[in-house]
Amino acid sequence: MVWRKSSFSGGGSASGGDCVEVAIPQSGRLHIRDSKNPAAALRVTSEFLSWVKRPT
Q1: Which of the listed residues 3, 33, 41, 48 has the most CB atoms within 10 Å of its CB?
Q2: What domain count does the chain have?
Q3: Residue 21, SS3?
Q4: Which stretches make up the DUF397 domain (predicted)?
Q5: Three-state secondary structure readout of 31-50
Q6: What are the φ and ψ backbone dihedral angles of 27, each rounded to 5 degrees?
């Protein structure tokens, strides 16, 4: 599985290294994790997903 994070996240915490990473494996399910703690599970609500998908 390939994890990706925003190019805006930077490299260290001072430059915005705190972010989420996403992966979409062949199963098509969306996986989300905290870049600071990749082993921990994140609970995502449908409201959050609606906010992420909204047009800018």
Answers
A1: 33
A2: 1
A3: strand
A4: 2-46
A5: EEEECCECCCCCCCCHHHHH
A6: -65, -20
